[in-house]
Amino acid sequence: MSVSVGAFAENTDSYKASNGKTYQIGDTIKLGRGSAPNGNFLYLQMGGWGMMASARTDGKNDFTMPSSYSGLNVILKKIKQQKFKGAIKTIFVVGGGNITNYNLIIEDAIASCEIVDCKEKVQKVEMVNQNSKLDEIKKLKGLLDSGAITKEEFEAEKKKLLEK
Q1: Which own/partner contact pairs does 34-37 have at CB distance under 8 Å and 24+ positions apart?
Q2: Cβ distance 91 to 82 under 8 Å?
Q3: What is d(CA 124, CA 109) in angstroms, rounded to the nearest whole number?
Q4: pLDDT < 50 regions, the chain
Q5: CA–CA distance, 111 with 91 (Å, rounded to integer)
Q6: What does the alpha-carbon distance between residue 48 and residue 53 come to, in Å, rounded to a whole number?
Q7: What is the pTM assigned to this prediction?
Q8: Helix (H) or strand (E) holding 92
Q9: Which of 19, 88, 144, 152 qualifies as a FRET site for 120, CA 20 to 30 Å off?
Q10: Domain ranges of the chain
């Protein structure tokens, strides 16, 4: 994908995120919890006409979504990139089943667990898998030490576990 000189890059139909997941138009994304101290979402923001309709004349706009959105599903409608102060942010335009769309700043939402498929949970799953392998190897070692299995059987089973 090439980045244009203007404020926006070309839209795309898919995006490989830092959590290892590839998102495509039409995917369902489950929201986690808002990361603001009061539980509101920082990286899920009102977009589309709803943002314009709720804009305040005093400039004190807050388009972030309330904590009541926790656990809801949103549908990915558009993937766009926005250049902001030299950085490129990937923004998902998502719909929640009502009349307006929302902007989900996906990498920030992943980093803060505002979506369920966040980095913290991916790391925990990897850690659990590693611990499970180690536990299984310890059990095999116990069987080897007790004479229940041979050294060759131990090595073969250990190799299978480590290749998983």
Answers
A1: 34/64, 34/65, 34/66, 34/67, 34/69, 34/70, 34/114, 35/112, 35/113, 35/114, 36/64
A2: yes
A3: 17
A4: 1-8, 50-53, 55-61, 122-123, 125
A5: 14
A6: 9
A7: 0.61
A8: strand 87-95
A9: 88
A10: 14-116, 120-163
